[in-house]
User: What shape does this take?
Amino acid sequence: MKNISKIGRILFAIPFAIFGLNHFLFLDFYIGEVSSFIPGGAYTIILTGIFLIMASLSIILNKYVKVSTILLSILLLSFILTIHIPALFDSAKWQFALIELLKDTSLLGGSLMIAGMIFDKEKE
Assistant: This one.
Protein backbone atom coordinates (compact mmCIF):
# COMPACT_ATOMS: atom_id res chain seq x y z
CA MET A 1 0.00 0.00 0.00
CA LYS A 2 2.94 2.32 0.69
CA ASN A 3 4.13 2.02 -2.90
CA ILE A 4 0.70 2.89 -4.25
CA SER A 5 0.57 6.02 -2.07
CA LYS A 6 4.08 6.97 -3.16
CA ILE A 7 3.19 6.57 -6.85
CA GLY A 8 -0.01 8.56 -6.30
CA ARG A 9 1.85 11.35 -4.52
CA ILE A 10 4.38 11.60 -7.36
CA LEU A 11 1.70 11.49 -10.07
CA PHE A 12 -0.20 14.22 -8.21
CA ALA A 13 2.92 16.43 -8.05
CA ILE A 14 4.24 16.12 -11.62
CA PRO A 15 1.56 18.31 -13.26
CA PHE A 16 2.34 21.14 -10.84
CA ALA A 17 5.95 21.17 -12.03
CA ILE A 18 4.72 21.35 -15.63
CA PHE A 19 2.19 24.08 -14.76
CA GLY A 20 5.02 26.00 -13.07
CA LEU A 21 7.28 25.66 -16.11
CA ASN A 22 4.41 26.85 -18.30
CA HIS A 23 4.33 30.08 -16.29
CA PHE A 24 7.79 30.78 -17.70
CA LEU A 25 7.35 29.34 -21.19
CA PHE A 26 3.95 30.93 -21.89
CA LEU A 27 4.30 34.12 -19.87
CA ASP A 28 2.47 36.24 -22.47
CA PHE A 29 -0.55 33.92 -22.39
CA TYR A 30 -0.76 34.08 -18.60
CA ILE A 31 -0.41 37.87 -18.60
CA GLY A 32 -3.50 38.00 -20.82
CA GLU A 33 -5.41 35.74 -18.42
CA VAL A 34 -4.59 37.53 -15.16
CA SER A 35 -7.37 39.69 -13.80
CA SER A 36 -6.66 43.40 -13.86
CA PHE A 37 -6.88 43.69 -10.06
CA ILE A 38 -4.04 41.22 -9.41
CA PRO A 39 -0.90 43.26 -8.73
CA GLY A 40 2.52 42.64 -10.20
CA GLY A 41 1.56 41.32 -13.63
CA ALA A 42 4.48 39.28 -14.98
CA TYR A 43 6.22 39.20 -11.59
CA THR A 44 3.19 37.58 -9.98
CA ILE A 45 3.04 34.99 -12.76
CA ILE A 46 6.74 34.16 -12.43
CA LEU A 47 6.46 33.95 -8.64
CA THR A 48 3.44 31.66 -9.01
CA GLY A 49 5.45 29.43 -11.36
CA ILE A 50 8.23 29.21 -8.79
CA PHE A 51 5.71 28.29 -6.07
CA LEU A 52 4.19 25.56 -8.22
CA ILE A 53 7.60 24.03 -9.00
CA MET A 54 8.66 24.20 -5.35
CA ALA A 55 5.42 22.54 -4.21
CA SER A 56 5.89 19.80 -6.78
CA LEU A 57 9.46 19.12 -5.68
CA SER A 58 8.44 19.12 -2.03
CA ILE A 59 5.70 16.57 -2.66
CA ILE A 60 7.89 14.35 -4.87
CA LEU A 61 10.82 14.44 -2.43
CA ASN A 62 8.45 13.94 0.52
CA LYS A 63 9.87 16.94 2.40
CA TYR A 64 7.63 19.51 4.11
CA VAL A 65 4.63 17.98 2.35
CA LYS A 66 2.03 19.16 4.86
CA VAL A 67 3.13 22.79 4.59
CA SER A 68 3.50 22.55 0.81
CA THR A 69 0.07 21.05 0.25
CA ILE A 70 -1.62 23.58 2.54
CA LEU A 71 0.11 26.46 0.72
CA LEU A 72 -0.71 24.83 -2.61
CA SER A 73 -4.36 24.62 -1.54
CA ILE A 74 -4.37 28.33 -0.75
CA LEU A 75 -2.80 29.09 -4.14
CA LEU A 76 -5.36 26.94 -5.97
CA LEU A 77 -8.22 28.59 -4.07
CA SER A 78 -6.87 31.99 -5.07
CA PHE A 79 -6.82 30.86 -8.74
CA ILE A 80 -10.43 29.75 -8.43
CA LEU A 81 -11.60 32.99 -6.81
CA THR A 82 -9.57 35.51 -8.82
CA ILE A 83 -9.25 33.96 -12.27
CA HIS A 84 -11.72 31.15 -12.94
CA ILE A 85 -14.92 32.47 -11.33
CA PRO A 86 -14.64 35.94 -12.88
CA ALA A 87 -13.91 34.34 -16.28
CA LEU A 88 -17.22 32.42 -16.05
CA PHE A 89 -18.98 35.75 -16.68
CA ASP A 90 -17.09 36.36 -19.94
CA SER A 91 -19.16 34.91 -22.78
CA ALA A 92 -16.03 34.23 -24.85
CA LYS A 93 -14.15 32.41 -22.05
CA TRP A 94 -16.75 30.71 -19.89
CA GLN A 95 -16.33 27.17 -21.28
CA PHE A 96 -12.54 27.18 -20.82
CA ALA A 97 -12.99 28.84 -17.42
CA LEU A 98 -15.38 26.10 -16.31
CA ILE A 99 -12.89 23.38 -17.26
CA GLU A 100 -10.09 25.19 -15.42
CA LEU A 101 -12.35 25.78 -12.42
CA LEU A 102 -13.23 22.09 -12.18
CA LYS A 103 -9.57 21.05 -12.65
CA ASP A 104 -8.33 23.36 -9.92
CA THR A 105 -11.19 22.38 -7.61
CA SER A 106 -10.22 18.74 -8.02
CA LEU A 107 -6.54 19.48 -7.44
CA LEU A 108 -7.47 21.56 -4.38
CA GLY A 109 -9.34 18.57 -2.99
CA GLY A 110 -6.38 16.26 -3.63
CA SER A 111 -3.99 18.68 -2.02
CA LEU A 112 -6.17 18.94 1.09
CA MET A 113 -6.48 15.14 1.24
CA ILE A 114 -2.68 14.73 1.22
CA ALA A 115 -2.29 17.39 3.92
CA GLY A 116 -5.02 15.68 5.99
CA MET A 117 -3.41 12.24 5.65
CA ILE A 118 -0.08 13.62 6.84
CA PHE A 119 -1.77 15.44 9.72
CA ASP A 120 -3.53 12.22 10.74
CA LYS A 121 -0.26 10.25 10.44
CA GLU A 122 1.51 12.76 12.72
CA LYS A 123 -1.21 12.37 15.37
CA GLU A 124 -0.62 8.61 15.59
Notes: The mean pLDDT is 92. The first helix runs from residue 2 to 25.
